[in-house]
């Protein structure tokens, strides 16, 4: 399972001209489930995202996570957007292959699981719409963009 994190000052997802998810300061999480991914990988990825210290402290060092943006307990938002194109393989030519991505039903199951777990562990979670044509706008803060991947061997089996 993989995610591309973008530290944002704000982010918004629209579908057919209507906002479906919006946050202020926090993380835009572009999320991709790959074939054979598990809920254990999802859990490990979410734990890493919530603890990742990529927000600046008073000295300008990346010492804060999304659950403690200011050192006084202010939480940032999570905007979780499904993006199967993170699994793209363009090594074979000019048209990327997406065969590494989970099948749509399995991708939706893992995406929904990730979002449900995120909502249990973090109070500020917004989403896009799975498999929709979405327009994502953001103000990248830094910019800070970090790819994360949890391989099957990295996750504890359930």
Please describe what this structure looks like.
By secondary structure, this protein is α/β, with parallel strands linked by helices. The protein has a single domain (2-143), classed as 3-Layer(bba) Sandwich (D-tyrosyl-trna(Tyr) Deacylase, Chain: A), CATH 3.50.80. The protein has two helices and eight strands. The strands form two sheets. Strands 1, 2, 3, 6, 7 and 8 form a six-stranded mixed sheet that branches. Strands 4-5 form a two-stranded antiparallel sheet. Strand 4 and strand 5 (62-64) form a beta hairpin. Helix 1 packs across helix 2.
Question: Strands, helices and their partners?
Answer:
Blueprint: E1 2-15, E2 18-23, E3 26-32, H1 39-51, E4 55-56, E5 62-64, E6 77-82, H2 104-121, E7 125-127, E8 134-149
Parallel strand pairs: 3-6, 6-7
Antiparallel strand pairs: 1-2, 1-3, 1-8, 4-5
Helix pairs in contact: 1-2
At a glance:
Helix content is 20%, strand content 36%.
Q: H/E series, N to C?
A: EEEHEEEHEE
Strand content: 35-45%
Structural class based on helices, strands and sheet pairing: alpha/beta
The CATH C-level class name: Alpha Beta
Ranges with pLDDT <50 over ≥5 residues? none
Strand tally is 8
Main beta sheet: 6 strands, mixed
Average the pLDDT over all residues and give the rounded result. 95
Name the CATH architecture: 3-Layer(bba) Sandwich
**CATH homologous superfamily heading:** D-tyrosyl-tRNA(Tyr) deacylase
Cα separation of the termini = 15 Å
Number of helices: 2
Helix content: 10-25%
């Amino acid at each position: 399972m993989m995610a591309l994190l973008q530290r944002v000052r704000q982010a918004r997802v629209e579908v057919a001209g209507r906002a479906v998810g919006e946050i202020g300061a926090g993380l835009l999480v572009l999320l991709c489930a790959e074939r054979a991914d598990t809920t254990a990988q999802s859990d490990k990825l979410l734990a890493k995202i919530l603890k990742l210290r990529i927000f600046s402290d008073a000295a300008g060092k990346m010492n804060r996570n999304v659950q403690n943006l200011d050192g006084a307990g202010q939480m940032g938002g999570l905007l979780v957007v499904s993006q199967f194109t993170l699994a793209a393989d363009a090594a074979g030519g000019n048209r990327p292959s997406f065969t590494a991505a989970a099948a749509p039903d399995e991708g939706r199951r893992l995406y929904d699981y990730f979002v449900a777990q995120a909502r249990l562990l973090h109070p500020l979670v917004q989403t896009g719409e799975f498999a929709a044509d979405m327009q994502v706008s953001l103000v990248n803060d830094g910019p800070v963009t970090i790819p994360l991947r949890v391989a099957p061997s990295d996750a504890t089996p359930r």
